[in-house]
Write a structure and sequence with these properties.
The structure is a homodimer. Chain A is 43% helix and 15% strand. In chain A, the strands form three sheets. The first copy, chain A, has a six-stranded parallel beta sheet with strand order 2-1-3-4-5-11, with helices on both faces. Chain A has a four-stranded parallel beta sheet with strand order 7-6-8-9, with helices on both faces. The termini of chain A are far apart. Strand 2 of chain A pairs antiparallel with strand 2 of chain B, so a sheet runs across the interface. Chain A binds a DNA duplex through helix 2 and helix 4.
Chain lengths: 342, 342
DNA sequence: AAAAATATTGTTAACGTTAACATAAGGTTT
DNA sequence: AAACCTTATGTTAACGTTAACAATATTTTT
């Protein structure tokens, strides 16, 4: 490997000080036009590549954002990442991507590593298995800006960007109720995760509002993965027929896909035997054997806004901590058994 | 923001030298057990977070890998990234993710930025619009390890990890021929990109091998996006009926989805009017209105292997440059019109 | 032409860490 | 007890850059 070219070498080459070269390369401060041209020419000639590591050390700033997501293969997250990347790019930040794979330990470690790498800020969507938040608190107390998105953490003094999970869950549950379903179950996410809890609350609220009794047995602790939905639905199908629900509200689309698989596998029909709705409008939702009624989340927009907020926090320590809520939309397809009146 | 805790502060606190503290924290070298415990305790007490930026500067190593991908929303890439992340994680590397959005300029800039950030290596899948490769050559000549994956660049002395695009394209084209189609068109990717060229070559080879004449009009310059496939197919559909192809080999699944849309939109049937095949087994392929016959690529595995190879290059400058080729599998669904004999 | 203002360049130290070498303390061998 | 290991710790310099201040050259003002 060639010896790397440094500012010093450029300086020696043209017989000037390092500072002058630095100034020329950064186009700041007062500097003679000719000098600058000479520096730039020499830099090019020698194949100079600036060393951001050294620069970061001096300036205490890396222009890097850490992004921690729980599951990159859910179509929601790549969309979010696209939004994140785009805004970051415009503001000259790069992103370090870490994948917690829904695992608390990995998430903790990722946070620590990213803090060590001195990212300027952190964007986190909480892993499913996370039950305590000391690790967030820790970095926050060190002054590292953090924005919590999608699966948020509240009350630790950070901005959050999400949709109104409770309201959306209420709406989609109510949609089932309006169609006429009365016995409705919820494949719930872990309540330690914001969206798990909020969607469950929304589900309950819809029942209450419509004066339906809440059957605790119809709240099935599940998870965010397809396999979770599958297993939970299998459990429901083991109930005697009269004790089974007729409508299913899954905590998200992957779980709904799993439930759909379980239902169809046992020879039941959707929506004739079971009405099913999901949450998040996964890219596959409209393509499933029975197209899935779901809630559309503005993933790309969410990524953009979370990043804008984070950069605002990074660049202005007085930036207000906010809970930002983005609008959703219910997408009615056939899995809920709704007959359009047209 | 709290003043950041440094090795020096720990050293002062316990009245020892920075070097001793450094040794204790890194668990290397000779050090008294008691001293080490004291250091660790003090580090914890003060809330010490090691500064990798400084460490990177000294050790000329960042434990960071740059990953540049052209389109994060194609389901292929998130899978690849999952593989990359996993292997990187195991070897204690982080990944900086950059999105070229199929744009040459962005790709160039990303490479330069990542080189400046002193990533230890680079993993690149070439953007669609890339026509020259100086920017690869440049970093390579600076001694920065690079592994080219999926959409590869050859003859610049870097390892490549891909599937056998030519053979796979030949196989899937031949599959159409075997079913009985003779007038087959190819929605081609840009030939400046490896997979564009290789898949086109495979297509041609299949025709030749089976003694079909190659109609140059049936090679439609297209692209990797759904819109590209849609537009190209629309063009084909404008041809008088007798001049139209009966089979369509799309350069990848998104392009095939676009073509499918165009075909169905005009009231034609698949496979009755047009047989259609794609490439890459996008997550949606099996769920489409007409399930798509395609080539399955081991995306996750590809990410893993590319990363293993890159880390090998990083950690051993004598590591052999290789062209690694992974196996594919043809996935026959209904869009090709194949009737299984069972 | 002296004084003042401006433009340009240079010097020193710092960012936080570790490599390489140096020293000291204690234990062993002969 | 002199010579020699070991083990533990310390010192100095370096990684590549820029901030803060200092100095000099040039231009403008009076």
């Amino acid at each position: 490997m060639k010896k790397r070219v440094t500012v010093k070498q450029i300086a020696d080459e043209i017989g000037m000080s390092m500072m002058t070269v630095s100034r020329a390369l950064n186009e700041n401060g007062n500097i003679n036009k000719k000098t600058r041209e000479k520096v730039l020419k020499t830099a090019k000639k020698l194949g100079y590549i600036p060393n951001f590591v050294a620069k970061s050390l001096v300036q205490q700033k890396t222009f890097t954002i850490g992004v921690i997501i729980p599951e990159i293969t859910h179509s929601f997250f790549p969309e979010v990442i696209r939004g994140i990347e785009e805004v970051a790019y415009q503001s000259k930040y790069q992103i370090i991507l870490a994948h917690s794979a829904e695992d608390q330990q990995k998430e903790k470690l990722a946070i620590r590593t990213l803090a060590s790498k001195r990212v300027d800020g952190l964007l986190i969507s909480t892993a499913q298995s996370v039950t305590e938040f000391d690790h967030y608190q820790e970095v926050v107390s060190h002054g590292l800006p953090l924005v919590s998105f999608d699966r948020c953490v509240y009350d630790i003094g950070v901005s959050t960007v999400s949709i109104d999970d409770e309201l959306s869950a209420e709406q989609i549950t109510e949609h089932l109720i309006k169609i006429g379903y009365k016995k409705i179950a919820h494949l719930a996410g872990p309540v330690t995760v914001s969206i798990g809890k909020k969607r469950l609350n929304g589900f309950k609220k819809a029942l209450k509002k419509n004066k339906l009794v809440l059957n605790e047995d119809f709240i099935i602790p599940s998870g965010f993965q397809e396999a979770d939905g599958y297993n939970s639905m299998k459990k429901l199908l083991k109930l005697p027929k009269t004790k089974r629900p007729r409508g299913i509200v899954a905590v998200n689309d992957p779980a709904a896909f799993g439930a759909m698989k379980a239902i169809l596998e046992e020879g039941y029909k959707i929506p004739e035997d079971f009405a099913l709705v999901g949450f998040s409008d996964d890219i596959r939702a409209e393509l499933m054997e029975v197209p899935l009624t779901t809630i559309r989340q503005p993933a790309y927009e969410l990524g953009r806004i979370a990043t804008q907020k984070l950069i605002a926090h990074i660049e202005n320590s007085k930036e207000k901590v906010e809970e930002i809520i983005l609008p959703t939309e219910i997408v009615v397809r056939s899995s809920c058994g709704f007959k359009s009146s047209s």
